[in-house]
Input
Amino acid sequence: MKPAHQTMLLNVMLLAGVMGLFVTSLMWGETRIMFSHALADLLAGRHTAGAIIVERLRLPRTLLAILVGGTLGLSGAVLQGYLRNPLADPGILGVSGGAALGAVSVFYTGLMQVSIAALPLGGLTGALCAAAVLMGLVGRGGTLVLLLAGAALSSFAAALTTLVLNLVPSPYASFEIMHWLMGSLTDRTFTHVWICLPGVVCGTLLMLSSGRALDALTLGEDVAASLGFQLHGPRGVQTRIVLGAALAVGSCVAVSGAIGFVGLVVPHLLRPLVGFQPSRLLLPSFLGGSLLLLLADMVVRLVAVGPELQLGVLTALVGAPVFFARVIMLKRTVS
Amino acid sequence: MILLQAREVSLRRGDRAVVSAASLTLAKGRVIGLIGPNGAGKSTFMRLLTGLETPDRGDVRLLDRDMGQIPLVLRARQLAFIPQDGAPPPPMPVRALVALGRLPHGQAGDHAIRHAAVDHALDVTGLQDLCARPASHLSGGERARMNLARALATDTPVILADEPIAALDPAHALSMMHLFRQQAGQGKGIVVVLHDLVLATRFCDELVLMDDGAIIRHGPATQVLDDDIMRTVYGVTVRRVAGAVLPWSLCR
Output
């Protein structure tokens, strides 16, 4: 089968999976409803309990799972391609840390009592500030400067977040902050969707525009430049990738908290299926990330015993064994 | 017809002049060998010729246009570059990597993979049999041929190669030099950085000898290389030994 057909088939299968889980996610939940009736009521504008549950609880949560999972998967694929490092993940830029710090500051200052939008807006502000600092630090520097700047920013944001946790007067607030940092889509509304959507759309478009440059970069920066790609500067590939990933990931972390391993694991699993070509990996990684997070969120909702398992905890619990398996496979291949 | 011309180009890094007033003219159908000891400034001069770096002084002209004024994509359609230490290739099939040479022409994916120029490049470099193999499984010699095939797939009038035979055994090095000569015979202009003076003498129309950032001599091999230059530039003495397996040897 031709590589393009193979990738198309993979995309179709992943899309079918996402659509199937989208519908399943709307149908299933803690409260049992007649989905067909709820959908009919929703479409007819009748405010029945089923329609309200689907519209206000399950639909925004499901849409966020698609957006957040997709963004994390795509960002992971783009950053791994750009840095030519399979261990790169969206957290490497430090923007997730900035978003977490922004959100934690909202907890600390009590601003979240003012509006439901205060927390995600705080996270978004933190992410945008971190992205601005990152872009300023990196300038026309190359990938090494980007990695160092991201590590510095990430460490500094983590230190400040710990400081806030240290200074917070109430143990309940500490618990809330810790809970939020674990990542979750519980109790998210359309307000959260609207807050993260612009950043996700702009960031995704910027990242998707870099596919051919990522292919060229597999041959090294000098060859990519000699093939006609402007790597640095305001309109360069690095700016598009860093800005795109920062906008999209920052917007997602602002509404969902930190959800690890999706950006790392999904491109890893899909890369052999697209012939290792970075440009072919982008769309499958978005769909694969969506699929994984939808699945994880449904597991969190449906297998809940006692306090609901946080989404970030589950993705880490699933993601880490996948890496263990990869290590064992790699050792077998080498031997 | 002049394809590429560097006129008195200079580049400083801090207080150090890395390239000093270097000039070079590459005509159609010619192979120029850029030679000199390590640290002579060959690779930096090559980057200036490629447009990867901009000279502090002087200018580089590609097909009679100032290099800095040519849009990057148009430049990529006229000049292909094979760097000194290419990044280790990913496990992509060889054909897919060679097809990346079509990117400057706006061709990607299956359209590029099926392009006649890619097939031609694979034929010329003898890689057709390996085209489905993951590039990460290639030997050093095969990788060197793949890099050349990628450059040929772009189908540019100028090819610049920085030490393309550095890691190759004599048979593969000879084969690569034959390929460069063959491409020049078809009208391309080639500048190649070499350390193997025997191959440089045999396959290049002209040698450009650099030392300490400056061009010391240029012209046919017979005018550039002599015992005196080997001693002063390379720091070795040429000793001709009658009856030995090789009729000469180099010693310090």
Notes: Chain A has a mean pLDDT of 88. The radius of gyration of chain A is 20 Å. Chain A touches chain B through 23 residues (CB under 8 Å).
